[in-house]
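The instructor's notes for this session suggest beginning with a concrete chain rather than abstract definitions. Hand out the sequence below and ask the class to guess, before any prediction is shown, which regions might be ordered.
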Amino acid sequence: MDLSLQRRLVVVAGGSSGIGLACAQAFAAEGARVAIISRSHQRLEQAQQECASAGLEVHAFASDLADVDQAQSVIDAIIASHGAINVLVNCAGAAARHPVDQLTPLHYLQALNAKFCPYINTQHAVLAHFVGQAQPSLRAVVNIVGIGGKVAMPEHIAGGAANAALILVSQGLAQAYGRHGIRINVINPGFTLTPRTQATLARMAQRSGESLERVMAQQQALIPMGRFARPEEVADLALFLASPKASYLSGAVINMDGGAYPGA
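After discussion, reveal the predicted structure:
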């Protein structure tokens, strides 16, 4: 299927690893021009090398998107060097998990700073840019949030609260900006095979005293499809949501959890 993404400029915030990197690679493979953002120069270099080895080109920009001024500056820099942005994929930041008996009010603020603020800061800068454009044919935002924003999890309460806030903001902005031809949609992945998930499972194994392999098997057994998602599967959905093929889809929240939480 031709998704009509050739030569479109796609910004992937958090594009240096995991789902974000999979998105960057998928858009580049479709012929889009891709800019990735990360705090880490080292991870950006590694991502560029990985893409290059697959015959794909991405442009790297370092920025701490939790800082509103840095978020604005990096979006300005991308526009200055590559022109008008067509798509923003937000995948930057993650909130730490805490056992509920160790959870403090500070953890909630840290979760907001780690997950909510990077998305909001980057999205704000890009939306202002979108509105300032002369009605290009494609302007879309895909916020990759997480199933914890829809399903309460005892060790992910603070992060889940940040995710829930992002879902609400995404839907509200989709309503507000629809009249400008701007679409905003949300993907809520469940457990996905990324370095972040591996670290979470390792902590679970350490606390339980069981092997990592057993914990992984237990968690996968809870999923009707019997396995975790692959980052590439999330990226495929992001491609569709960003493309003109989804031209009348906005404000949608799509759970991608292998059927683990039907009706959530």
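Then share the key points. Residues 105-132 form the longest helix (28 residues). Residues 31 and 76 are 23 Å apart (CA to CA).
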